[in-house]
């Protein structure tokens, strides 16, 4: 019995409400996993890993002596989200994306929220994510944040909290889709007995989102995915999404600006490009507007965009809402633009730019998590309770030197989920990133990327720091389309 000896360890657990007692919604899954021997579970785990490797679903780890190309470690035991939890998460995500879209539009145009003193002006203009060339932009249909990933953690109280917003080029959706496809092959009988909502239609939703923002008068747009190239860590995902939508994958060298339109070189000559799903960071998109040394982008692209001759997703400039210092103001941003209280709560956040909050952070470094505002992947972070005095001293100096670059948050008891580790099943900390698309309306895929901190006791789930992933099962009710049976994908 695979789960017989599993212990929650005093943490909130995604499958169990106590040792040996499953959450009601997870009970059917636990029973079927428990019916497998550990040997059977390990064989299925190995099978899943082989499928993922053969599919080419890999990422690059720069500077790793063991090799650069790896599969994201995958755990065969899925994570579940109850229908009631998902309903609240989905409403909170949509509210948040809608408000942040209004915020970005305002910041690069009228700046009313700054004039009214809701967000400090210096916080915006000191951000490396604020792009002056984006001032005055008005994206097609008023949408800036077409593709987003909202990171959640579940704390010891069982509640989900937003950890950060990803509004530039959020990655990871290919793992969501591939993990589901693999698990349907490995554990088909379990899907047939549970109301798991499907995720495989993401490519269709993404295509419709991109088509919606096509330039005025273009009925049948030529849509492409723009990648930095094969050496990018997420190149597999770029190619995967292009294939899912049935559109070309291009690099900057494949494109040219002519007569203020963007054209793609093909074997039959130039073909006009109408919509670009760009997986290139803002500052590398157009050397005429941003970094002149960039060889990844397309000279003149921003000029075409401003003229309405090509549409970009996401719109350039969205990174201002990614800034972790701005994150602290999202509840006020929601209240300002929507006159609503946040449905999804933030983690309490201290901004080191503020004198009083900085003093508190410096006095409590052993208790807090400190983050650099513009770094990701688990870099530039201090986890206070697990840090040494030397590390705390180092971060204190960094904060004092550049307070704008750091925020701090209390250390949360992140939820855990049963994870196959060697010959045992043990609890490992997890987070959750659902993906949303903003076109004619906001659609949130009923699933997402559950990342797992595979190192025992670790709170860092990022793949670059040794994290892995799980398939995420959002449960439906009697009215929802589900995996398996007559409603199979």
TrEMBL record:
Ranges of residues in domain Circularly permuted ATP-grasp type: 78-453
Pfam families the UniProt entry points to: CP_ATPgrasp_2
UniProt xrefs under PANTHER family: BLR5612 PROTEIN (PTHR34595), SLL1039 PROTEIN (PTHR34595:SF7)
Superkingdom to which the source organism belongs: Bacteria
Name of the molecule in the record: Circularly permuted ATP-grasp type 2 domain-containing protein
SUPFAM superfamilies for the chain: Glutathione synthetase ATP-binding domain-like
Species of provenance: Asticcacaulis endophyticus
InterPro entries: ATP-dep_Glu-Cys_Ligase-2 (IPR051680), CP_ATPgrasp_2 (IPR025841), UCP005522 (IPR016450)
